[in-house]
Amino acid sequence: MTDQTKSSTPAKPPFWRDPDKRALVFQGVFLLLVVVVLFTLIRNTMLNLEARGISSGFGFLETSTGFKIAETLIPYDESSSFFTAFLVGLLNTIKVSVIGVFLATILGFIMGVARLSKNWLVARLSAVYVDTLRNIPLLLQLFFWYFAVLRPLKNPKQADNFFDIIFLSNRGLYGPKPIFEDGSGLILFALIAAIVGIIVLRIWAKKRMENTGERFPVFYTSLGLIIGLPLLALIGTGFPVSWDIPELKGFNFRGGMVMTPEFSALVFALSIYTSSFIAEIVRAGIMSVDKGQTEAAYSLGLKPSWTTRLVIIPQAMRVIIPPLTSQYLNLTKNSSLAAAIAYPDLVSIFAGTALNQTGQAVEIMGMTLAVYLFLSLTISSLMNWYNASKALVER
Amino acid sequence: MTTQKYPVGQHPNLPPPNNTVGVLFWLKENMFNGVLNSILTLFSFYVIITLLPPLLKWAIIYADWTGDSKDACTKDGACWVFIRVWFDQLLYGRYPSDSIWRINLSYVIAIVAAIPLFFSAVPKKIKLVLAAFLLVVYPIICFYLYYGGGFGLEVVETPRWGGLFLTLVIAVSGIVLSLPLGILLALGRRSNMPVIKSFCVVFIEFWRGIPLITVLFMASVMFPLFVPESLSPDKLLRVLVGVILFSSAYMAEVVRGGLQAIPKGQYEAAAALGLNYPKSMILIILPQALKMVIPGIVNTFIGLFKDTTLVLIIGLFDLLGMAQLAATNPNWLGFTVEGYVFAAVGFFVFCFSMSSYSQHLERVLNTGHRN
Amino acid sequence: MTESNQRELSDEIVIRINQMHKWYGEFHVLKDINLEVTKGERIVICGPSGSGKSTMIRCINRLEEHQQGQIIVNGTELTNDVKNIEEVRREVGMCFQHFNLFPHLTILENLTLAPMWVRKVPKSEAEATAMHYLERVKIPDQANKYPGQLSGGQQQRVAIARSLCMKPEIMLFDEPTSALDPEMIAEVLDVMTTLAEEGMTMLCVTHEMGFAKKVADRVIFMDAGQVIEQNTPTEFFENPQNERTQLFLSQILGH
Amino acid sequence: MTESNQRELSDEIVIRINQMHKWYGEFHVLKDINLEVTKGERIVICGPSGSGKSTMIRCINRLEEHQQGQIIVNGTELTNDVKNIEEVRREVGMCFQHFNLFPHLTILENLTLAPMWVRKVPKSEAEATAMHYLERVKIPDQANKYPGQLSGGQQQRVAIARSLCMKPEIMLFDEPTSALDPEMIAEVLDVMTTLAEEGMTMLCVTHEMGFAKKVADRVIFMDAGQVIEQNTPTEFFENPQNERTQLFLSQILGH
Amino acid sequence: GATLDSIKEKGFIQCGVSQGLPGFSNADEKGNWTGLDVDFCRTTAAAIFGDADAVKYTPLSAKERFTALQSGEIDMLSRNTTWTQSRDTSMGINFAGVTYYDGQGFMVRKDLGVTSALELDGASLCTNQGTTTELNMADYFSQHGMTFEPVVFEKSDEVVAAYDAGRCDVYSTDASGLAAQRTKLAEPEAHIVLPEIISKEPLGPAVAHGDDQFFDIVKWSIFVTVEAEEMGLNSSNIKAAAANKDAAPAVKRFVGAEGSLGENLGLEADWAVNVISQVGNYGEIWERNVAPLELPRGLNNLWSKGGIMYAPPLR
Ligand SMILES: Nc1ncnc2c1ncn2[C@@H]1O[C@H](COP(=O)(O)OP(=O)(O)OP(=O)(O)O)[C@@H](O)[C@H]1O
Ligand SMILES: Nc1ncnc2c1ncn2[C@@H]1O[C@H](COP(=O)(O)OP(=O)(O)OP(=O)(O)O)[C@@H](O)[C@H]1O
Ligand SMILES: [Mg+2]
Ligand SMILES: [Mg+2]
C-alpha cells in the first residue's frame, strides 16, 4: 500500500483552480482597488484645495473664534480658540446624549411595561403613544416641541413664577443654583461617605441574607443615606451653601441655573422619540421570556414581584440589550439635529459656525465624523462587553 | 350552586357563572382589579379627557374648511384652507402643474404592478416577472417620466421636485438600490477572506457610526472637492448616493441576520449537490435569508422614509420642507402648526401602514414555518 | 401485575376538591371535579389530550383559577386571597413537561433560589440541601453548570430536585417525561419511583403506564373535563369499567 | 443471520482512501484512515458518538478538507483543485441526518434544481427524472408541496430522491434515520434497501443494525478517529474481534 | 480658465443664492427666483451667453455657502455675503465687487420700549449661523461692556420663526435683511429697527480662486450696471443707443461699437448691451427689488448723487 502513495501531501492544482490561491489573488486585487480609489480621492482633494488656494491644516484650531456660544459646560468666550469651541460642542453633544439616553430608557421601560399591562386602558394608551411617536419623523417632532411649546410661553417680564425662585418663560426654565462656600467640602465628604456606606450596606445585606435568610430594606436605607448624610453635614456645618437665585434684570433673568428652550426641546424630542422604540424593545424582551418561567417561579412560591426581579428581568435583558444599544447609538447620532433648533452641539458649533468662519470643511468634517465614530464605537463596545458577560451558556 | 348530578361522563357543557362574564366583569377584570389598577385607569381617563376634547375642537369643530385665501380663516381652530391651497405643492413640490400627471401615472403603474404580489393565488412566475419589472424597468420609466427630455416630455429639473413626491423618490430609490449593496456587504462580512471581511466591517461600521446630516452635507456641498472637476452629477443624485451608501450599511446588518439564521445544513446540501458558491447563494441561501428578513427590510425602509426629512436642512424640499416653506410664505403666515400636523399625518399614515404590514409579515413568517 | 404498591394509607386528607368547575371564557373545561387525596397517596392521572388533566393539577397550586366549587390544600382553601395562595404554593411542588429551569442561573442557584427567598433559609444551608437532592437525582457533579449545558433527562431531574428543595408536602407532575428521548425517560422515572417509595404525596399526569402500574395507589381517568373512572392500577388496567376508558387503554397499550 | 447479501463484487475500486489524517485545529479527529470501496459495494459504518464517522464520509465529497493522505474518488484525487472537487461532487450523492431540503422550493423544484444548474439538463427532462425518482420513493403525489408540509420520513425520502436525480455513482448516508420517529424509520430503510439491491455503491453511517445485517457487504467500526474493525456483517455481529467493538455491540443491541 | 470653460460647456451658470430673502433672492411658488442677488447672477449670464436666463440656482444656507463655492458645487456665490479680508484670502475665494453697501442692525419689538442698541445689555439675540453677524455682535457687546445670549439657527426662516415666537428680544442681521425678513413677521408694524448700524457690510458676489477671466467677467458685469445708470442708459433705451451711429464715444465704447472692452474679457462686443437690456442698470435693479422693502437708497446711490456706488472707467 505504501508504494502506491506518491506523496503524503495532496498534489497542487494550478492556482486558478485552487480556492485558497484564488482568494489570495482576489483579495490582492480588491485591496489594490480600494487603495487606488482612496488615494485618488485624497489626491483630488489635495489638488482641488491647492488649486483654489484654500488654506489647510489644523493651525486654525489655535486661533480665537470671535463668536459667542450660549450654553457651555467649560469656560469659553469670544477669545477662546476653535479647539475650545470644539470641546464645547462635543461636551454639549455628550450632555444631551447622556440625559436623553437616561430619560428615554426610563420612559421606554415604563411604556413597554405599560403596553403589557393587564389594564386594558393603560395598554391601549401606551400602544397609541408608541405607534404615534415612532411613525413621525424626529425632525418634525423637534420642530413641534420647539415652536409649538415655545409660543405659548410668556416673555420674561410675565414669567410664571414659582415661589420666587423658579421662573418659566420663553427664555427657559430658571432655577436657583447652589454656590458652595468654605466648609462645603464636608458635604462632598458626606456624599462620598454615603456612597461608600451604601456599597458596604449592600454587601453586608447580601451576606446577611445568605447567612440568615433575613432580608434588609437596602433600597430605602440607601435612599435615606444618600439624602440624609449630606443633609446632616449641611446642618452640622451651618449651611455653608448659598443659593444664586435668578432675578429679572432688564431683558432677562440673571444668575441661577437655566434650562434653555433649545436644550429642553432637544432632550424632549430625542427621549420621547427614542422611548417609543425602546418600549417596543422592552415589550419584545419581556414577551420573549417563556410563560413557563413565570409558572415555575410561582409554583416554587416566589411572589410576583420577586419573579419579575429574579427571573423575568434578567432573562429579558439579554434580548433587550443589543437592540437597546443601537437605540442609544441612534439617539447620539440624532442629537446632531440640534442645529435645526439652535442648540449648540458639535455639528452646530463646530461643523456649522466654525466651519463657516474658517472655511476648512475637510478638516472640520473629518474631526466631526471621527468624534461620532468614536462615540458609537465606545457605546457599542461597552454594550457588547456587558452582553458577552451575560450571555447564556449553552451546550 | 347546582348540586344536580349527572351520570358519569355525561356532564353537559354549562355556561360560566354570571359573575365571571359580561361587560361589568370585563371592566372589573381589565380595568379595576386592585387599587393600583383602578388608579391607573382613572389616571388614563384623565389623560384622555384633558387631551382629546381640545384636540377635537381645534382640528374639527372650530376649524375652517372652505375658502381659498387666508381671509377664509376666521374661526379659532385649525385653518385647513391653508392645506387645501398648498395641497399640490405639498404633494409635488414645485413640479409644473401641467406635468403632475406624469408623477401620478408612475404611482398608478407602481400600484397596478405591485398589487398582484400581495395575493398568494397569483402564480410565482408572474410574481417574479412583476418584481423584475418593478425593480429594473420601472425605475427607468420613472426617471424618464419625472425628468423628461426626449419624446415630447418637457424637462423638469430636479430642484423643482419636492413634497411627498421627493420624499418617495429618495426613500424608494434609497431602499431599492441599497438592498443589492447591502447583500454584497453582508456576504462580504461573512466571507472568510480577511481583506474583504475587514473592508466590509469597516465600511458598515463607518456608515452606521456617523449621523445622516453630515453625510447629506458632504454629499451636497463637499462632494466636488473629492473628485476630479469634470465629475459633477446632479445634487439630488449625489444626495441619493449618500443615502444609498448610508442605508446599505443598515441593510447589510439586516441581511446578515437572515444569513445567520440559515442552518449550516442548507449550505452543505447545496455543496453536496455540486452547486458552487455563487449558485448556492443565489438559488438556495439568499432567497431564504431575504424572505426571512422582509420585516427588517421594511423597518429599515420606514427609518429611511422618516430620515428623508433631513434633506430640508440641505435645501431640498420634501414633504416637511414644503410644509415649512408654505408656512413662511408672507401671505400665509401663522399656519405653521397646520403644516406640521399635515406633514405628521402624512408620515404617520405611510409609516404606520408599513409597520403594521411588517408586523403582520413577522407573525406570518414566525408561524408559517410549516408551509 | 405486581401488587407491590398495595399498602396501608393514612387517612389524613391533604387535598380536597369539591364540585369544582372551571371555564376558559365560554369553554367549560373542568366539570364537577370531586377528589380527595390522602397523605402519602400516589395518584396517576391519564386521559386523552385536551381532557383537562393539566388544567386540573394546575388548579391545585392556583396556576389556573377555578370559578366554582372548592379546592382545599392542606387545610387552606384556595381563594383570591394572596396569602392563601402563597401558603399553598410553598407546600406544593410542581414539575412541568418542559422543565422550565431558569436558564440564567446555575443548577445550584436554580435549587437555592426559592428556599433562600421564600423560606429564608441561609445560603449555606440551602446549598447543602441542594447538593443533597442533586445527589438523590444522581447529578451532583453538574451543580455549577447552566441548564443549557445539560441533557433533557438531566434537566428534568434538576427540575424535580428544585421542587424538592422547597420540602413540599405534595408534588405535582405534568407529563414530566413526554418531552424526553427514550433513554432519558428511564432516568427520570427512576427518580420519581424512588420518590414515590419514600412516601411523598404525588399527583402525576403521565402516559407511562409502566410507572402507573408500579407505583400508583390510584389511577384517575379523565375525559372531556370530567373524572370518568378511578381505581387501583390493577383494577384499572385489568378491568376498566367505562367504555371510554377501555377505548383509551386499547389505544395506548396497543401502541 | 441471513446470508442474502453475500454476492460477487466487482473489483473496480471507486473510492480509495490512503493514510488519510484530519485535524480540527489541534484536535486529531481522523487518524490514518485506509479504505477501499469497490463498485457496487454497500458499506455500513458504525461506532460511538464522536468517533469521526460523519467526518470521514464528509471528507469523501470534500465537505470537510483532509490534511494528510489521499482520497481518490472515481479516479479523481481530492485536492484543493476546484475542478476535481466539482467533478467528485457530481458523482457522489449525500443524504444528511436532517434532510436539508430547501424549504423555499417545492419538492419538484428541490429535485430539478441541481440537474438543471449543475448538469445543465433541460427542465422537462429534469422533471421527468424527478418524477421517476419520486415514484421510486413512493411519493409522486407530493411533487408540488413544500418540504415543510411533509412528514420527516417523507422528507428524508425526498432527500434521497434529490441525490439520485444527479445520477450519482456513489451515495453517502449520514445517519439518515436518526432524526425520525420509529414508524418513519421503516419507510426510509425500505427505500435504502431497494437502492442497495439495485447495486448502488453506498456508504452509510447508521445505527440500524437490522439494515446492516440485511444489506451491508461490509461493516466498519470506528472509534476515536480510527477504523478499529471491518468485516462482513455476519462475522462482525457474531464474532467481533476487538473488545471495543464488543462493548459497543453489547450496548447498542442490548438497548 | 477652468470655471469659465465648464460654464460654457454646461451652457449655464450655477449660482448660489439664499434660501429665501425677499428683495435679494427669493423663489415664488413655481420656483422662479427674483431679487438683487439673483439679478447679479443674471448679469453674468447675460454677459457670457447673451442670455440672462442661462442660470441655475442653488439655494444655500449661510453655513453651506463657502464650502459649496470652494468645492465647485456652484460657479458663483451671490448670496448677501459680506466681503471680509479673511474670506477673500484664506478661504480661497474672490469677491467680485460690492452690489450692496450694508451694515448690521437690530430689530426689536416696539413694546419693549427700547430706542438704542446700547440699552440691549443682557438681551437674547436671534441670528443666523455662519455669518459675520455672529462676530460683530460679540465685538460690539464686549466693546460696550454688555452681555448677551446668542441663539443661532441654521436657516433664516427658523430665525424669523423663533424671534416671532418670542424666543429672543432682538433680531440682528444686516439692515437690508432686517427689512426683508420683517415682511415675514406676523405683525410687521409691531417691530422697529434700531438706529445703530454696528458694522460695515459690503455685500457682493464671490467666485472661487483659479479663474481670473471669470472673475473679471463677474466683476465687470457688476460695474457696467453702475456705469449704465450713470450714463443714463437703461433697458429701454440701450438698444436704441447701440443702433445710434452718432452716439457719444463713451456710449459707443459701452455698446461695443468701438474699442475692445468685450474682447478684453473674452466676450462678444455687445455683452454690455445684453446685460443692460436683459437685466437693467443698477438703478432699475434697485427699484425692482429693494425699493419695495422701503429701504432708502443711501450709500447705494451713485457717487454723483451722494452715495458711494462708483464704477471704474470703461476704457
Ligand atoms: N389558556 C387557555 N385558554 C383557553 N383554552 C385553554 C387554555 N389552556 C387550555 N385550554 C383548553 O382546555 C382544554 C384542556 O386543556 P389541558 O391542557 O388541561 O388538557 P390535557 O388533558 O392536559 O391535554 P394534553 O394531554 O394535550 O396536555 C383543551 O381543550 C385546551 O385547548
Ligand atoms: N467543525 C468542527 N470543529 C471542531 N471539532 C469538530 C467539528 N465537527 C466535529 N468535531 C469533533 O470531531 C469529533 C468527530 O465528530 P463526528 O461528527 O465525525 O463524530 P460522529 O462519529 O459522526 O458522531 P455522531 O454519532 O455523534 O454523529 C467529535 O469529537 C466532534 O466533537
Ligand atoms: Mg397537558
Ligand atoms: Mg455524525
List keywords for this structure.
heteropentamer; A: alpha+beta; MetI-like fold; two-stranded antiparallel sheet; 11 helices; 64% helix; globular; B: 371 residues; mainly alpha; 14 helices; binds magnesium ion
Summarize the entry for a quick read.
The complex is a heteropentamer, with one copy of chain A (395 residues), one copy of chain B (371 residues), two copies of chain C (255 residues) and one copy of chain E (315 residues). Chain B is mainly alpha-helical and 371 residues long.
What global shape of chain B is seen? Answer: globular
The domain tally of chain C reads 1
User: Overall pLDDT of chain C, averaged?
Assistant: 87
* CATH C-level class of the largest domain in chain B: Mainly Alpha
- Mean pLDDT figure of chain B: 84
Number of domains of chain B: 3
What amount of the residues of chain B lies in strands?
A: under 5%
Strand element count of chain C: 10
CATH topology of chain C, what is it called? Rossmann fold
Multimeric state of these chains? heteropentamer
Ions, cofactors and other bound molecules: adenosine-5'-triphosphate, magnesium ion
In percent, how helical is the residue content of chain C?
Answer: 25-40%
CATH architecture of the largest domain in chain B: Orthogonal Bundle
Q: What level of helicity do the residues of chain B show?
A: 55-70%
Most extensive chain-chain interface: A-B, 51 and 54 residues
What's the tally of helices of chain B? 14
Largest sheet of chain C: 6 strands, mixed
DSSP helical segment count of chain C: 9
Alpha-carbon distance between the termini of chain B?
Answer: 48 Å
Written description of the protein model:
The complex is a heteropentamer, with one copy of chain A (395 residues), one copy of chain B (371 residues), two copies of chain C (255 residues) and one copy of chain E (315 residues). Chain A is 64% helix and 7% strand. Chain A is of the alpha+beta class and 395 residues long. Chain A has a domain at 82-154 and 260-389: MetI-like (MetI-like fold). In chain A, the strands form three sheets. Chain A has a four-stranded antiparallel sheet with strand order 1-2-3-8. In chain A, strands 4-5 form a two-stranded antiparallel ribbon. A two-stranded antiparallel ribbon of chain A has the order 6-7. The two termini of chain A are 42 Å apart. Chain B is built from 14 helices and no strands. Chain B has helices at 23-31, 35-61, 80-92, 100-114, 124-147, 163-190, 194-209, 212-226, 235-261, 264-272, 277-292, 294-307, 319-327, 336-367. Chain E has 315 residues and is α/β, with parallel strands linked by helices. Chain E has helices at 2-10, 36-49, 62-71, 85-89, 132-143, 156-164, 175-182, 212-231, 238-243, 249-255, 261-265, 271-278, 282-289, and strands at 13-18, 26-27, 33-34, 55-60, 76-77, 93-95, 100-102, 104-109, 123-128, 148-153, 170-174, 191-193, 201-203, 206-208. Classes of the chains: A alpha+beta (395), B mainly alpha (371), C alpha/beta (255), E alpha/beta (315). At the B-E interface, helix 8 of B face strand 4, helix 3 and helix 6 of E. Bound molecules: adenosine-5'-triphosphate (2 copies) and magnesium ion (2 copies).
